[in-house]
Amino acid sequence: MGGKESKLQYFPFEEACRRMKETELKRSKDAFKRVATLGGQMSDVVFCREVLGEGVPPGIANLLYRGFGGTSKGLSLKDLLCGLVILTKGSVEEKIKFLFGMYADDSYSFVQKEEMDRLVLESEGQVSNALSDLFSENDQVTFDYFRLWVKAHPDATEMTKWLLMEPMTVSLSDDTDTPTFYQTLAGVTHLEETDISELEKRYWALKSQSKSGKFDLDTFKAMVCPPVPEAICESLFHAFDENRDNHIDFKEMACGISACCRGPGTERQKFCFKVFDINHDGKLCERELVQMVKALLRIRQENQPTNTMECDPFYNMDPELVAKEILASHDGDKDGCLTQAEYLVWTVNNTLADNFLDLLSQICHLVMGLKPQTKEEEGEIIKGFRMMRQWLQRESKKSFEIGQVWYLISMTWWNSWIEYVQPPIQMSNGRLDSGEQVRMNGTEAMHKITKSKHSSKALPWDDDSVIIVNMITKGKNSEYNTSINGGFKSSTIPQRSQSACSSPIKTCLSASDSNGLTSVSPGPSPKLRKKGLQQTNSQPVKPGPIDNTNLITPNNSKVISLTNEGGRLRRDTMLVRGKDFELVPEVIWRSLSTWYGGNIALPRTVIASKNNNGSPELELYPVTVKLLRHQVVPQRPNPTSFSGVMSGIGGMALSMTNYVSSAPPIPRRYVAFTATFSKQHTIQQVYEFLCTKVRFVREDIRLWKIGSKDDSMTLLEDESMTVEDCGVEENQSLLIEVRNKDLTWPEEMSQLAKNKTCRKEQVPTQKGATGLNNLGNTCFMNAAVQCVSNTWPLTQYFIGGLHLFELNRSNPLGMKGHIAQRYGELVKDLWSGTSKTIAPLKLRWTIGKYAPRFNGFQQHDSQELLSFLLDGLHEDLNRVHVKPYVELKDSDGRQDEVVAEEAWENHLRRNQSIIVDLFHGQLKSQVRCKECGHMSVRFDPFNYLSLPLPMDSCIHLEVIVTRLDGSVPVKYGIRLNMDEKYKALKKELSSLTGIPPGQILFVEIMGPIVKALPQDNHKVKTLIGGVLYAYELPPHEEIKPMTIEEEKGTVPKNSVGLNDIQRGLATKKIQQKLENGPTSMSTSLTVEDNSANNTPTHSRQPSDVPTMGSLQPTPENPAPKATAELFSGFVIGVHRKMNLMDVYFLSSQKARPGLFGTPIILPCVEDTTNQDLYQFVWTQVSRLVSPLPPSEVKSANHAQDCDDSLGYEYPFTLKVVMKDGLSCAWCPWYRFCRGCKLECNADDFNFGSSFLAIDWEPTALHLRYQTALERLYEDHESVEESRRKQTEPINLDTCLQAFTTEEELGEDELYYCSKCKKHCLASKKLDIWRLPPILIINLKRFQFLNGRWVKSHKIVNFPIEKFDPSNYLAPRAVSEQSVTCVCQSNNSAEIQPVPNGDIPNHNDLQMEVEKDDKESKALPCKKCQLIKNIPTADEPIKYDLSSMSCHTGILGGGHYVCYAKNPNQKWYCYNDSSCKECTVEQMDCNSAYILFYERENIDFSHFMPDVEGKEPDLQEIDDEFESDLKKACVIQ
Predict the structure, then answer these.
(1) Which end of the chain is more exposed for a tag (fewer CB within 10 A), N or C?
(2) CA torsion angle for 896, 897, 900, 904 (degrees, to 10)?
(3) CB within 8 A of 687, min separation 6: which ones?
């Protein structure tokens, strides 16, 4: 056929257009436009999804895409339309050409054997023998040969069979029309489809304001009260909430609005009757009548103009007297109650309830979003041109309230709107009617206010629909004068502001008295009114969108505003209310902008006046600021060597070394946003707003106020200060500083590079309250250093320079004194009180020199750094310059006291320093051989206790149990070991539910589909994104002989009647018998006969174990697909609805199925009928379908008679489907079947599929299905208990108990027994023998389990004061002990007995190396002085917390923060460079990682060395180290 540019060029595009209807062509083009790429092509994925649908196998879909002419670049519209016409309307010859194009080469000349075999194999999985005939003579064939072959073998492939043999089941149009939700609702209400569409948008906006996620009573009350009296809010809510579930769904809201606004007068009065029928008995008793009259009188009073109130016949009526009169006149049966009919008779000649109906109309239109039908109705709702005071006038009686939001509207637009909506002026003999005269006098235009949505917030500035603009008002001088006798006077000119701010003019509005502002807004100008009187026949023009551009200054900024202030008001002209603008509340602005459109919203907020004794006032001019950000710079590499660290963390502050530095570039700033804030906003509110709007984490941002000079910056740290207190002015620049990924602050790094400090009020408030700059993920170091720095005895040692007298530069285990020197310099700076922050550069470099593992910019363990720092300080300050050799001796049965003292003496002979004195204690370690029982005891020193946290060895599971009786599901909480299987879970769940384990089926559900069916031998796991359900299955019964009636099939199959299903009475009459076994299902929903026969089951397989089977379908139905899964004992039902598409390509895609709800497990056995399945589904879903209330059976009110038109027994149809729930399980794909219907009859279910689609009828789904109940379940008490156990904190005592508990050593930890002379199994136990003055406790949150590191987030409760660890001291053989003091070892002097096994630290055991002969000698002992500070036996040991390091976040990342107590007894939070005072309650104790405890009643001055007669070591860091440092900082 020759080479072609397109495979479909044999079929012209013009011919395709001619065969298509105009509507089909337009719809197809619109559908293509929606899914096509920018290049006008449709991809293969989109083609499969949008054109063919989900049921077509991927291989077939790709082959069709190829046949349509699709390539890797896509498919054009012309080729698509040509292909669609050939498929649906093409002749046989055209379809053969289409088939040839599918398998032909790119030139469209030949079909090659190898290529066709490949395509057929990929699309169908097998190659038929008919293809051998096609290529019997040649490996490639032309079109003519292919044509002859395909006519002879039309069933050669699935594609040829579909196109040449099967009737085409799809077309380009589908005339069947499934009603949409809007159409269904519009058919049973008085609303139009457009009204319902707009109401739905408003409904979701209202629901989003709910804290509970439901449109509940609290949400409803906040919207309507006021103006609805609080006393009737609940009853009004229940009038909308028909099913009494404390939630108004959209259907209920739409029907309620229809009944009280758009219905005829009788229906509206019936709705009013419902509101006051509190007990829902269909009658109004005297008490309810009194409450009704009270509410109606109050509503009438609030809505009547003041000057007509005294003339009102209802003025000052007694509600009880009125109620009695109503009963006396209209209670026909004299039962003391008023029926609905009697109430309707009363309303005929009494207008008292009309005010309430008018109020409901206002609420439905303004609050709930219903658009008025006429312009006159619109004007009456908002403005109220007649005697009745409407929304705008009613609010004028109220005074300003802080937090209210007002919107400005240009007076030009406002006047045109009033002229448009006001009723025609009626003339009587050339004069105005009396009613019109009142209207013209301007009483309708009075100042009003509405409450903010968020009444709990003083300033609703964080609402997306409201942006708080600075609110300023002058009080008495700016009030408006009202005219006498309703006449109009222009407003007074507002005075200029005397504020120190730079705003030149402030137009302020404030309440003049308790009655609020009573200014008159002029409405239409006199000229417009005069013109309106002269031209009464002319029709006013509908105004366009609200245009406020004449009120604001042009915005020349190219950046977006984070706030919705709308713009800055003009300052060049004095703006006056009534002349330039009008104020309306938020509810009116939202309605007008929705109905007419609006380009600029100008919200302004009421605040407390700072100059008028806190009186409410409205500020028109906000404070607008420019928000700056740093430009993102390329991330620096992670150095791994020491020199890499040096050049990485800065060649900063290198002016100290007089070398040129490779300083990081100064971060450039740019204006990212603008924003507007109230002057009374706190800095905390500003931070919260920015974090919410720009999605920052609060700890990762800081705000700087930039002065006139760029280098003049002030950090806004005090979050309690207001914007005004901070001196933020109009057009002020604020820098949002975002922490880098390595936790450094860009400004700090820049300032360090320039050897400057950031302005943060440099001098701290207290000595020691100084932060440390983060130098690149160095928070682990900062937190540890701050903890050690706030250990006051050690800090006193370094501040006093005592470390210079004890530097040990010859210690081979030390760091030549460098660590001690650098740390001493840093401590002096921290406690000098001269700077708010310090960069620990020197200490960081020194640590990196001697511990390269801390190099780079990765996060490290703060405990490891702390351990290295304390060991380094100890070795650099070790008073023992020549360490003697010490031999370790076995305990060999000796007393613990002797062995412990011997070990302690040996420790002190080699280690004496201030670190040993303060931090070192002693542990007792005993190992017991399992074979011979030999006990080996050792005593080892420690400088911190590392307490393991009990890792979570249990898994917390929450299972939702669905029972056979269709009751509300119940959620249970269960804790199991991590290695348990689902079989164990069944046993635990059975003990809680009472369901036998054999009747429980676990199902993992994700959304509306079944994800998996866990087997009993599967390991239990936590689900990600899914929910674990447990379905109850019927019990297994023994096989019983069938009765004669059952054998003959004459047992009647009873079913539920239509009326009972729709009225919801079936569930009340039906006695469920499912607990007796599956045989009762066929009669479980019997209405007339509750004693139906129970047919025994013949199931021979356990129903709780899902298996794969191959049950044969009945001959009437097609064979199931080979890929269908068949389970034994149950089938899975999924809820499905059809979504109508406005544009589509093929008729099969007009209504697309969508899954929703929770799947249902349907028990079924060999004798289960189709009717049984229908009845069981109804049992499970009946609670989701709202019944008609019995009192409303014959009532047409509230559009509730709609279901009487449904002509089906069940509101759903069952269809057999595949696992995806979208395509048929029986029909081949080319029939495009969504599922074959399972007839509701007494035929046995044929098990042709294990998945059924529950297709809901649109009307029932739209009007009766309650979506809110889909995921409703009850929580069993086990849920709370399990969650509590999972998250309940543990005590520090629990950790100490675990630390001192004997543990068994495993096979990989064999102990070498000195008695057995071999490695043996053993047990090990640790005890505390000696406690140090400063006790450091490390909570081991990071542990290596199952081959990986994990972090425990367990909360540990620990005491802040009076911590007593003496209970965990090792027991002594005797209450008192004698030990030898090594300083007098030659004389074997004895030390006085010490209680609790606490031996004083031996500062007196100092050993010096003489420079001449290097002989050591003992220094004078100070034990007598120390013993005086040791608690007596009657006084237990007590510790107080002095500091702690906390870790938040995940393993391998996170952040460290330190909390420490200053010597002034106040707590401070050290968060890198930030240091703030805090209380104990504000500390994050839940994340505690390292605890520093300081023992009470010790005079630490005795631990200070005696330096009398000694010279300090003032030697600087050696040249070798300095040269390394300098080299690292020089530009390479």
Answers:
(1) C
(2) 180
(3) 698, 701, 703, 719
Question: What's the pLDDT score for residue 198?
Answer: 87
The secondary element (H helix, E strand) that includes residue 594 is helix 586-596
**Interval 990-1036: pLDDT, tens:** 999 889 888 889 998 888 888 888 888 888 887 776 789 999 888 87
User: Strand, helix or coil at 793?
Assistant: helix
Token duo for residue 952: 């979570």
What whole-number percentage of the chain has pLDDT above 70? 73
In the 8-state DSSP scheme, what is residue 107? T
Strand spans (E) along 495-593: 508-510, 560-561, 581-585
Q: Which DSSP letter does residue 773 get?
A: -
CA distance 977 to 1349: 19
CA dist., res. 286 & res. 1240, Å (int): 51
pLDDT at 1467: 92
What is the C-alpha to C-alpha distance for residues 1180 and 1161, in angstroms, rounded to an integer? 10
The phi, psi pair for 181, rounded to 5°, reads -60, -40
Q: Are strands 1342-1345 and 1348-1351 parallel, antiparallel or unpaired?
A: antiparallel
Contact 1433, 1393 (CB under 8 A): no
Q: Per mean pLDDT, which range of 1036-1040, 1140-1144, 1450-1454 is the poorest?
A: 1036-1040
Q: CA dist 252 to 196, 1212, 1349, 1452, Å?
A: 12, 22, 54, 52
CA atoms of 1327 and 925, how far apart (whole Å): 7
Task: Report which residue type is found at 972.
Answer: Y
Measured in whole angstroms, the distance separating CA 785 from the mean position of its chain's CA atoms is: 36
Greater pLDDT, 430 or 778: 778
The answer to whether 999 and 990 are in contact (CB under 8 A) is no
Q: Residue 1415 corresponds to which amino acid?
A: E
Tokens of 391: 């929304």
Q: Which of 1186, 1182, 962 is nearest to 1084 (CA)?
A: 1182
d(CA 276, CA 289): 8
The answer to whether 660 touches 870, Cβ cutoff 8 Å, is no
- Structure tokens that stand for 1372 in this block: 């002594």
Residue type (1 letter), 1375: S
Residue among 907, 909, 884, 883 at smallest CA distance from 810? 883
Concatenate the DSSP letters of all residues of 851-914 into one string: -GGG-SSS---HHHHHHHHHHHHHHHT-S-SSPPP------TT--HHHHHHHHHHHHHHH--SH
CA distance 499 to 511: 20
Tokens of 443: 């009483």
Q: In the structure encoding, which two tokens stand for residue 858, read together?
A: 């990765």
What is the DSSP annotation of 1056-1099? --HHHHHHT-HHHH----GGG-GGGGGGTT-SS-TT---PPP--
Q: Which structure tokens are listed for 470?
A: 């600075």
For residue 7 the two structure tokens come to 């495979």
Hey, which bits of 1392-1511 come out as E strands?
A: 1439-1448, 1455-1461, 1467-1471, 1474-1478, 1488-1495
Q: Which residues are catalytic?
A: 779, 1455
Q: Are 207 and 214 in contact (CB under 8 A)?
A: yes
Give CA torsion, residues 649, 650, 654, 660, to 10 deg.
140
Q: Select from 982, 938, 948 the least CA-distant residue to 1370.
A: 938
Burial class, 1376, CB count within 10 angstroms (exposed 0-12 / middle 13-18 / buried 19+): exposed
Beta strands at 1303-1304 and 1322-1330: parallel, antiparallel or unpaired: antiparallel
Q: Tens digits of per-residue pLDDT, 951-993?
A: 666 778 889 999 988 889 999 998 887 778 888 898 989 999 8
Q: CB under 8 Å to 69, separation ≥6 — which residues?
A: 6, 7, 8, 75, 76, 79, 83, 101
**Per this entry, what is the length of the chain?**
1532
pLDDT single digits (tens) 1269-1285? 887 888 999 888 888 87
Q: Quick one: how far is CA 16 from the chain centroid?
A: 51
Q: Could you tell me if residue 1457 is left (phi over 0), alpha (psi between -120 and 50 degrees) or otherwise beta?
A: beta
